[in-house]
Amino acid sequence: MPDCAFVLFGATGDLAERMLWPSLYFLEEDGLLPDGIVFIGNSRTMLEDAAFHTFVKEAVRQRAKGKIDHDIWDRFARRLRFCAGSVTDKATFAQLASLCGEAPDKIFYLSTSPALYAGIVEGLAGAGLSGPPSRIIIEKPLGRDLASCTEINDALSAVFSEDRIFRIDHYLGKETVQNLIALRFANTLFEPLWNAVSIDHVQISVSETVGVEGRGAYYDEYGALRDMVQSHLLQLLALIAMEPPSSLDPDAVRNEKVKVLRSLRQIEAKEIGKFAVRGQYRKGFADGQEAPDYASEVGLAASDTETYAAVCAHIDNWRWAGVPFYLRTGKRMPERSSQIVIQFRDVPHSIFAGSQLDANRLTIRLQPEEGISLSLMNKRPTLEEAGFNLQPVSLNLSLSDEDSNGRRRIAYERLLLEAIHSNSTLFVRRDEAEAAWRWIDQIQSGWAQSKSAPLPYNAGTWGPSASFGLLERDGRSWCE
To answer: How far is the C-alpha of 280 from the C-alpha of 467, rounded, in Å?
Structure first.
C-alpha cells in the first residue's frame, strides 16, 4: 500500500510533458522522493500503462538530453500508474480512488484548464478523496479578473481548507528568487539600505523572444498584463518590497507579501496613460527569424489584446514612499531575459573631480542564466594620470556550477518537493492572489475607459516608444 498518492490531472499535456514529469524524475535521481510515494496520471487520452511509461520516459529524455540512468528510471517507473478518463465522469474518480487505495496522504495536481477546477474538486469530494491531509495544487491563471478568481477560490475552499490549497507560481521556485530572501535577511549589508533613502528605483523585466506558440486562444483572452504582471511580476515585487518576516513560517512570509500588494497605489483611469503602457507586436524579426504580426499569428483579422505591458507602480508605505517600481513584460522582444534591477541613489557629493560616478546597482538575473551581481565603483590600476581614475566593476554573488552539481534545476522541482512535504511558503495564498487581481483590474478598467488600443511595436524591438517615456520623464531609462 502506498503511503502517498500523487495524482496529476492533465498528465499528457504540455506542462506535464515539459516540466512536471522531468521534475519528478530528477527528484528521484537525487534521492529526494519519499519511499512510499506513487504517481497516478490522469488524461482523456486512452493509454495502456506501457504506453504511458513510454510517454513519460520520452519526456524525461528530452529534458535530460538523453542522459537517463536505467536503474533510476526503473525505480521511478515502478511508481507510475495511469488512469484514463474524463474529469466530468464520476467513474474516473472511482477508478482514481481504487488506484490511491488506502494511502493516508494524497496530493492532486490540476494541470488543466481552470474551467475544470470546480468539477474536479467536486469529483474528488464525491469519491471521498478530499479529506485531510489531502491537498491540491493548482496552476495559474487563477481567473482573469478578481470576480473569476474569487469564484474559483470559493469552489476550492468549499472542499479544501486554505492550508491544503497550493497555488503555484513557478517563478517562486527559481533558486535566485529564493536567494533574494537570503540576500536581504541573512546579511546586515543590504537591509539598512533597502528603503527610499538609498534606493532610487526598481525595475522588474521579463522579456520573451517567442510569440504565442500555439496558445493563441488562451493568450488573446488574457494578454500580457493578466498573464504575466498579475502573477510573476507582482510576486517578485512583493518579495523585493516586503518587510522582514518574523520567521520563515509560511504565513509569516505571506503576511508580509500581502501587505505590499495591498499598499500598491491604485492607478486611476484619468492617469492611465501616465503610468501604464500597452503594446502589440507587428511583423518584424525576432530570434533571428521573420515574425508575423500578432493578429495574424493568432488567426484573427484584428485584436486589441496587448502583448506588451509596462507599468510604473508605487507602494504607499514608509519604506518605499516615492520609489517607483517599473514593471514590464513583452513577447517578440530582442532577447529572452528576466531580471530585477535595484538602482541605488547617486552619492550625495563626489570628491572625484573629472570622474564619472555610476550609482551602485544590484542586478538579479532569473533567466536565461541565474545570477546576482553588484556594481561598485573602483579605482582603475594605472599610473598614467594624476588623481583617481575610476571604473565600475561587478561583484559576482552567484552560485558556482559546483554548488548546483552542474545542472540547472527546473523551478518545479523545488515546488513539487515543497508540496509533497506540505510546506506552503513558496505558494500563493488566497488573499495574495485576490489583492493582485484587485490592482490589475483597476489598470484594465482604465484602459477600457480610455479606449486606448495597444500601441504597435516591431517584433524584435523593446516595445512601443511610449514605454520609454515612463522612465525618461523622470530622467531614468530601462536597463537592457
So the answer is: 12
CA 464 – CA 277 distance, rounded (Å): 8
Backbone angles phi, psi at 303, to 5 degrees: -155, 145
CA–CA dist 219, 307 (Å, integer): 9
- Among 120, 115, 110, which residue's Cα sits nearest to residue 89? 120
Positive or negative, the Cα torsion across 451, 457, 463, 469? negative
* Ranges of the chain with pLDDT below 70: 383-387, 399-407
- Count of alpha carbons within 13 angstroms of residue 436, beta-carbon side: 28
Q: Phi/psi of residue 28, each to 5°?
A: -65, -45
Tens digit of pLDDT for each residue in 375-389?
A: 988 887 776 656 677
Report the C-alpha gap between 87 and 82 in whole angstroms.
14
pTM greater than the 0.90 cutoff: yes
The C-alpha atoms of residue 343 and residue 184 are separated, in whole angstroms, by: 15
User: From the candidates 232, 314, 349, 421, which is the catalytic residue?
Assistant: 232
Which residues on neighbouring strands pair with residue 206, listed in sequence order?
Answer: 329, 338
| pLDDT confidence of residue 241 | 98
Is 232 among the catalytic positions? yes
